[in-house]
User: Fold these one by one.
Assistant:
Number 1:
Amino acid sequence: MSYDKHQFRSLISRLLPPTLHSENAIELLLATAAQESAFGTYLRQFGNGPARGVYQMEGATFGDLINRFSNKFPIIKDWKFEELEWDLQKATIMSRIKYYSCPGALPSSEDIMAMARYWKQWYNTPRGAGTVDEFVENYMRYVA
């Protein structure tokens, strides 16, 4: 079972603090959830892997972001990695901070290929198992 795209879009919009809020960010987070967890179907990485939550963040990434950004975003200071599995606010904000930490501007919310390439470069990483084509397919399946 996956999320309703309209309700999830509205929730992301309401959860993001003003400094992290934009249409480009909302669309990229929706697309990331579509790719990483089949839009909320999997909240633990398939095959008992280390990633958690709708955006499938790994513990090492989470810890790095807490260390680097808890002064800029004090709300995250006492958050725990395990909470990403069930707390959509924490999962959403941490995923957005991950993208915030990446160089350059976010891709346009209207350019799915640019979003897919950005996700592959900065979220999945060039050595990650996901592909740009798979990202686009999942975006079309769950979000478009």
Note: The mean pLDDT is 96.
Number 2:
Amino acid sequence: MKKTLCLLSIVSLPAVLGAQTNPAPPTAAQQEIGLHAGRGYYRGSTRQVVYCDHVVVTNAQGRLSCERLTINLPPSEVADSHPTNAVAETNLDIIYIDKHGETNHLVADKGVYAYSVIDGVTNETFTFGPHATNTAAKFWFTGEPLVWDNIKGDFNFGTNVDLKLKQSAGSGTNGSPFNLMK
């Protein structure tokens, strides 16, 4: 179980909740992972870990909740033990602190984490959707789907994008929407 929680921490929290291209080294508190689910199991034949029924994962950066979390592990003969993907399904709700220290709230039907290394090139993406909404202190936006490339630091809002900047009293505008992701 300890190995499973360690793998879950690699997938779910440092990456999803702290989506940064150059994250700071994790502190001891950030490495502590909590997981609660109504039930869970491991399928050795497919190297898949599944948690079901009110899944809640927490660490110092935030909280992820959903009804089902499935993590696919690489083949046992592969030296890289990094999970190849994770899928959080049904009522995905993530509250996380971004790299600016701002609290964000992301809601989606589904979240998919994908990781691969092909010809020495690492790919790592997070896709939320098909309909996803992210709310922050200064703005909110929706898209179909929302896709974060963790290696490139690129964010794709998909189609049917809505963006709303929130204004503080007496401060005019909060600046260009193009500065929001910096």
Note: The CA atoms of residues 132 and 159 lie 11 Å apart.
Number 3:
Amino acid sequence: MLTQFKAKDVAFVCIGTDAVMGDSLGPIVGTYLKRLGYEVYGTLDSPVHALNLKYVIPTLPKNKTIIAIDASLGMPLEIGKITVGKGPIYPGKGIGKNLPPIGDYHIMGIVGPYTRAPGLVLANTRLRKVFRMAEKIVDTISKAIPIAHQEVAVTRR
């Protein structure tokens, strides 16, 4: 699904905060993608989260496909699963927040089970699990939407 895009035509919005372990998936992915040269909104240094999402959305490029990335909760057997789909995501929905939808496409990583105490689940998610999922997402994106590295001509003096 993602192979139809060129890196120059895509911007990633990586949602979450490192203040809550399970919610750090987006900013970790964003940090890795930015280091690789992708256009990214939402990193560990500059996160996109519930408090600033509505201010970030109007700044997104209108001429690019927006791919939103976020952590989510799911059924116990789904933990660790990464889903990719067309259409927006609704950040915070699993913990009862009403935030604006975002993305032309989305990537979600299921970091824990949905329970009556979703905040507790996100707070107690293992960091290693989140990092493994982030690494898989970044690896998949880098293969599906490679950065076009321009060769630099070397001239002799």
Note: The chain has one domain: 2-144.
